[in-house]
Amino acid sequence: MHILTITNLFPNTYDKRNGVFLYRQLRGLQKEGAKIEVWLALPLCPWPLYLFKKWREWGPATRPLELPGCEVKIVRYLRLPGAWFNRWSGLFLYMSCKRSLATRAKEFDRLYGYDIFPSGDAAVRLGRLFNLTTVCSAIGVDLMQTSERNERMRLHASWILRTADGVITCGRALADAVDRYAHRESLNVYGVVDLQRFRPLSDRKSVREELHLPMHSPIGVFSGYLQTRKGVYELLLALENLVKKRRDFLLIFCGEGPERSELEKRVKEKNLERNVLFSGFIPPENMANWYQAADLFVLPSHVEGMPNALMEAMACGLPAVASAVGGIPDAVGKSSGVLLIPPQAPEALSSAMEKLLSEPDYRQQMARQARTVAERDFGLQRNSVRIMEYFSQTPAETNTPVDKVASVPRR
Fold this sequence. Notes:
Elements: E1 2-7, H1 20-31, E2 35-43, E3 71-77, H2 86-102, E4 110-114, H3 116-130, E5 133-138, H4 141-144, H5 151-163, E6 166-169, H6 172-182, E7 187-188, H7 204-211, E8 219-223, H8 232-242, E9 250-254, H9 260-269, E10 276-280, H10 287-293, E11 296-299, H11 308-315, E12 320-323, H12 328-332, E13 338-341, H13 346-358, H14 360-377, H15 380-393
């Protein structure tokens, strides 16, 4: 089976962790016999806009990483600033892909739109035009945030999900959202984690030595893009309260992002330099060491699907504190190794972290539970087989003419 994936999320020279979960998913499908090609959607960004920090990630210097197993092509499309344009971004991406696909459509067996806006939107339009079976993947922000901006966006998301031949979700909350929008079932797959690479280690000392981390201090790890919706500012507030009791506690921010400079500024203002380490970008294949060196993982996001970082940490047997948002509560269940807290609640976050640090037996129990859940639900091989079967079984249905694609009812 030859699968063409259209996405705006893929590891690139600007953000090497961007879409790493998709790359792992595609590699898993490849191991199950699929041939993979990726079209990476990047907005057109003329000079001098890409000289400014806000648009730098879309400049000509941004290129997809050369990773084994995936042929990647850049597709530039018109994407104007502002949330209003989300309604039309998929249409312009469709127009940018249309000519290239016209001469190659017969090469592909499936179209895969990863993320509803703009990739899934463009994929279903192309699928209707070229009579290609199309599967879309909802990842979290697309349905929990972007689609909820206004009634027009809700109607358009509904059309995309109803028009696709299949839909994949990463969590019960997203599956419920698909049902609410389109009255249809979806394939719910939490993740594709390499359980051999991400595994518990009995000897934490050697890993800490390798990473030059303190031997005896309690350590917490955050892994993700440093942006507001990841809860990074709530995490700093929680840390400020926590260190009143745990003066030797070290919090490590693994990752880069637009909020890093502001976070560093606030760390200095609060005299937390000895309690915070900014590791910068960590190659995905090296993240296991950072989880294995820590005592707990923390992810206080405002919105999520089912975050790859949380699944990786659980696979490493690392007890976690995470916001009860998106697909997280359903994925981790009860007694799973994760303490769930409300989003944007720094006091609850601080209390949960203190509980894990103050009760070592409870922490060890959670560590075992976390690994058990990861083995059951997050394994690469198991979920790659499920996704591949879904692609194989999803039938090509009667297609809607492309000139009706944008005919979303007005209200």
